[in-house]
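Just curious: can you write whichever protein you like plus the matching structure tokens?

***
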Amino acid sequence: MKLLTNPLSVAGLLLIFFFLGVAIAAPWIAPPEDPSEPYRLPRDGWSSTPQPPGEGHIFGTTQGQYDIFYGVVWGTRTAFRVSLMVVGLSAIIGVLIGTVAAYYGGVIDSVLMRIVDVFYSIPYLVAAMVLTTILGRSLTNALIALIVFGWMGYARLIRGNILSVKEEEYVSAANAVGATDRRIVFRHVLPNSIFPVVVQASMNMGTIVITAATLSFLGVGAPSGYADWGQMISFARNWILGTQGNAFQYWYTVIIPGASITLFCLSWNLVGDAFRDIMDPKLQGGGA
């Protein structure tokens, strides 16, 4: 399999499986104090000053004495939940709308694409912040906002590919023998035009986690005390510059959750690049 012969894609897969293993084993790696609320960060006091890594807190504590290790471990589950739900649902919505617009064309295409243009004209992060604020601060509402304003790219991408594919001879032949639109779309059109969406989705897995972390950092994403990487960095905002004469005194409050976000995003980008090289026929032909 070509995915396993590329060193960069292998590195990406290893990172993904590492994070997946941490997410699955989270209840054993960092047992929750209250099993009914596993995503609530445990705290060891009320002091606003972070404490360095040591006995009992191997990654230290952040502002409010929240345990960083617990937040990073359970934040992995949050990252997968965010990325899979937002990317999955956004891609489904975008593919459905883009497919209908491209296949039927005419007025349907014009109306749907104008809707896409309207959504595209709204800044993504600002729109997500406003909608989350209106709905109320929670991770679920943040996911809804990210989905509502995150499907347009998939719609445009699949539409462009279907406009090209539907002119192929095998589609015309299927029409000639009386195949239904549903059969033509799902049997001939989508399988030959979906690969760019798969590549885009794999790369967006990491990007969405960064966006969700940004919402949490700005105070409109996950609620305070929730195990989320963006939340962990938000707790460190007053300690990023350290103290006078020791700029890196509280490095662990930023570097550890920040490294988690960076590596998670990097892993999906590496796999996405490999998918693009494998699934794009033009690139394969050029390599041959």
Summary: The chain has one domain: 2-30+42-287.
